[in-house]
Amino acid sequence: MSGAPFQAVVIGASAGAVQALLRLLPALPGDFPLPVLIVVHVPPDRDNALVSLFREKCTLPVKEAEDKERAEPSTIYFAPSDYHLLVEQDGTLSLSSEQPVNYSRPAIDVLLATAADAWGAGLCAIVLTGANDDGAAGLKAVAGAGGVAIVEDPASAQFPTMPAAALAACPTARVMTLADLLIFLPGLVAA
């Protein structure tokens, strides 16, 4: 664990994301003090139904990220459909309609790399299930900035390609099952 107090958790997921996040997010306690920023690959022509789905199931407030808002503690933010979610140096969120990265907008790499620049060692980044390699370069950036890099165990992920690619790009990442994460995340902020 790094010596810095944590400032944020960022999560990237693709295929199988809803099932994985349904295990993790509702389990976060109401007093979990960090912002949680999430990119899930959602087709650009569809409304993002994730906010309403998770709002009903989570103790923490759940919302769609808005351009130029500050990442507030104890809040879960989902990237909106068809926009990259970025973190500015001052912790403000921004949205971008720049070109897709890894065929995706929002892209996990974009969130992870900008969050690593903003929060450095104060960041915990997690790459979950998915069927491409988005998140691999971003997770490497997080580790390079001193943050905690975690991949869902490819052996237990619904779609192992994405966590396996992230682990290949960032071999120092911790490998955890969803059950491990349920214990680890609340412990990030334990006194």
Automatic annotation (TrEMBL):
Q: Which reaction does it catalyse?
A: [protein]-L-glutamate 5-O-methyl ester + H2O = L-glutamyl-[protein] + methanol + H(+)
Q: Which UniProt keywords apply?
A: Chemotaxis, Hydrolase
Cite the active-site annotation. S14, H41, D134
Q: What class of enzyme is it?
A: hydrolase
Question: Which biological processes are named by the entry's GO terms?
Answer: chemotaxis
Gene3D superfamilies hit by this protein: Methylesterase CheB, C-terminal domain
Instruction: Output the InterPro entries linked to this UniProt entry.
Output: CheB_C (IPR035909), Sig_transdc_resp-reg_Me-estase (IPR000673)
The chain positions of domain CheB-type methylesterase read 2-191
Kindly list the GO CC terms recorded for this protein. cytoplasm
Looking up PROSITE patterns in the UniProt record yields: CHEB
Enzyme Commission (EC) number: 3.1.1.61
GO terms (molecular function) for this protein are: phosphorelay response regulator activity; protein-glutamate methylesterase activity
Does the record carry RNA-binding as a key word? no
A single Pfam family it belongs to is CheB_methylest
**Which named protein is this?**
protein-glutamate methylesterase
Query: What organism, scientifically named, is this protein from?
Result: Croceibacterium xixiisoli
Upper taxonomic lineage: Bacteria, Pseudomonadati, Pseudomonadota, Alphaproteobacteria, Sphingomonadales
